[in-house]
Write a structure and sequence with these properties.
Layout lengths: L6 H17 L15 E7 L6 H20 L8 E7 L6 H11 L5 E3 L4 H14 L3 E3 L6 H4 L4 E3 L4 H14 L5 E7 L3 H16 L3 E8 L7 H9 L4 E3 L4 H13 L6 E3 L6 H7 L6 E5 L8 H13 L7 H20 L4 H9 L23 E7 L2 E8 L2
Parallel strand pairs: 1-2, 1-3, 3-4, 4-5, 6-7, 6-8, 8-9, 9-10
Antiparallel strand pairs: 10-11, 11-12
Helix pairs in contact: 1-2, 2-12, 3-4, 6-7, 9-10, 12-13
The structure holds phenylalanine.
The site of phenylalanine has 15 residues, from α12.
Length: about 400
C-alpha cells in the first residue's frame, strides 16, 4: 500500500519543482535514478499491524529528516524522494515491497526496518541486487551479517544483552532470573541468548525459560510456571504488545518482582496496555528525549512542531538518524550509484546523530550508548546511560 499524499509530500513536491527548474539543462547522470530528478529512497515499515507503533515512529523520524534535507537544498543539488510502503507488520510483505523498490522505482538505497525479523527478510534481496540497505534500529547481529550492502545505525544485541545482564545483577540485585521470550521473533530469541550468556558469566543463574509466540494473548501458564520457582526478576525480551500483556497478567497473578526487557518494549502503547502494572519494570533503549544534548533538544522541538506535540521515541530518533547518515553518504559519494553509496556508507565516521556519534565499523554496525528507562506514575522515566 502506498501512503496517501500528506502535507510533507506537498512540501517535497514543491522542492522537486524548484530543483528541477534550477537544474534544467543539466545532463542526466545515467545512474538509473532519474538524473536531475529526485533521488529515490525506499522505506519499508510496519505502518499498520501489531508493531505499528514502531513503523510510525520510525517513519515520522525519517520523514522529518528528509524534509529538513530537502529544505536545505537536497543532496547533490537534488531532492530526496522517500517512497514509503507498509508491510502491515506481516511476514513476507517486506520482500515483495523491497523487490518493487528495486525493479519498479529503481531506488538508490533502502531504509528499514525496526523489527530484526523483517530486516532479515529484506536484507538478502538488497544484498543480491547490490542496493544499500540501512536499518535504523534492528539490533540482531545477523541483519548486517547478510552481506556488505547491509548497514545499521544502532547498537547490536550482544551489547544490549550484556548491559541488561549487568543491570539485573547490579541494580536489581537479581541472582536468579526467569526468561520469557518470543520464539517467533529472531530479535527476541537472540536477545534472550545474549542476555543468558552474559548473566551466567557474571555469576547469575537463569532458573527457568518459558516461551510464547507473537500474537499470543494469554501468558498465565508460563507465568504460573515462573512464579513456582520464585525468581528475583523476570526478563521479557519481546515487543510491546505482548510485553504489556505479560506484565499485566504477571501482576494479576501476584508476581511482584521486577520485570525488564529490551528496546522492543519502547512504545507509548506499552503504557496504554499495561498502565499501573508497569511499576517496577525497566527496559533498555537507544536514546532518551530528556538528554541535555542541544542536538537532541533541537530534534525533539522540530519533531513536536511537525507531529502535534508528540515526543519522539527511540525509533523516531533512529529513523531520523538513518536518513541523515544515508544522505551524508550519498553526498560524499558524489553519486547515487548504489555501489558508490555503499562504499561511502562503509566509510561513515563520527557522523553527528541524535543517538550519538555514528561510526560504521567493518561489520557495518554502530557502537553507541544505551539508556535504561523505567515507568513511574504512568510515564516513562530515564534511569541511567550505559556506555559501551
Ligand atoms: N531492536 C528491535 C529489533 O531488532 C527493534 C526496536 C528498535 C524496537 C528500537 C524498539 C526500539 O527487532
Amino acid at each position: 500500500m502506498k501512503l496517501p499524499a500528506s502535507p510533507d509530500r506537498r512540501v517535497f513536491l514543491a522542492g522537486i519543482a524548484l530543483a528541477t527548474a534550477l537544474l534544467a539543462g543539466c545532463k542526466p547522470s545515467g545512474d538509473g535514478s532519474g538524473g536531475a530528478g529526485p533521488i529515490k529512497v525506499g522505506e519499508f515499515a510496519s505502518i499498520t499491524g501489531s508493531e505499528a507503533a514502531f513503523g510510525n515512529s520510525s517513519h515520522n523520524g525519517t520523514a522529518l529528516a528528509i524534509e529538513e534535507i530537502n529544505k536545505a537544498g537536497g543532496v547533490l543539488g537534488r531532492p530526496i524522494e522517500l517512497i514509503t510502503e507498509d508491510n502491515q507488520s506481516k511476514q513476507g510483505e517486506s520482500v515483495t515491497i523491497v523487490k518493487k523498490f528495486i525493479s519498479r522505482d529503481q531506488v538508490s538505497a533502502v531504509l528499514g526496518e525496526v523489527a530484526s525479523g523483517r530486516s532479515l527478510e529484506a536484507a538478502p534481496v538488497c544484498q543480491e541486487a547490490k542496493i544499500p540497505m540501512v536499518s535504523p534500529s534492528s539490533t540482531n547481529p545477523k541483519v548486517t551479517e547478510t552481506g556488505d550492502y547491509v548497514f545499521r545505525v544502532c547498537f547490536i544485541d550482544p551489547f544490549q544483552g550484556g548491559l541488561l545482564a549487568d543491570f539485573a545483577k547490579r541494580t536489581l540485585k537479581a541472582r536468579k532470573v526467569a526468561i520469557l521470550s518470543d520464539v517467533s521473533a529472531p530479535y527476541s530469541v537472540g536477545l534472550a541468548e545474549f542476555f543468558e550468556k552474559a548473566f551466567r558469566a557474571g555469576g547469575g543463574e537463569v532458573v527457568i525459560e518459558q516461551r510464547y509466540a507473537s500474537k499470543d494473548k494469554d501468558f498465565r501458564a508460563q507465568l504460573t510456571a515462573i512464579k513456582a520457582v520464585s525468581p528475583d526478576a523476570i526478563f521479557v525480551p519481546g515487543y510491546y504488545t505482548e510485553a504489556g500483556l505479560v506484565v499485566t497478567q504477571a501482576r494479576q497473578l501476584g508476581i511482584t518482582v521486577p520485570i525488564f526487557g529490551g528496546d522492543g518494549w519502547e512504545a507509548p502503547e506499552l503504557i496504554q496496555i499495561a498502565g499501573s502494572a508497569l511499576e517496577n519494570t525497566y527496559y533498555s533503549t537507544h536514546y532518551s528525549p530528556e538528554a541535555a544534548d542541544p542536538k537532541v533538544q533541537a530534534f525533539v522541538k522540530a519533531y513536536q512542531a511537525k507531529y502535534g506535540g508528540q515526543t519522539p521515541d527511540a525509533m523516531a530518533a533512529l529513523g531520523y538518524d538513518s536518513a541523515l547518515v544515508l544522505a551524508d553518504a550519498i553526498q560524499r559519494a558524489g553519486s547515487t550509484e548504489p555501489a558508490k553509496v555503499r562504499d561511502a556508507l562503509a566509510a561513515t565516521k563520527d557522523f553527528p546523530c541524535v543517538t550519538g556519534k555514528t561510526t560504521l565499523d567493518a561489520q557495518r554496525n554502530a557502537t553507541k550508548s544505551a539508556v535504561i528507562i523505567t515507568v513511574k506514575d504512568g510515564k516513562f522515566k530515564y534511569v541511567e546511560t550505559i556506555n559501551p
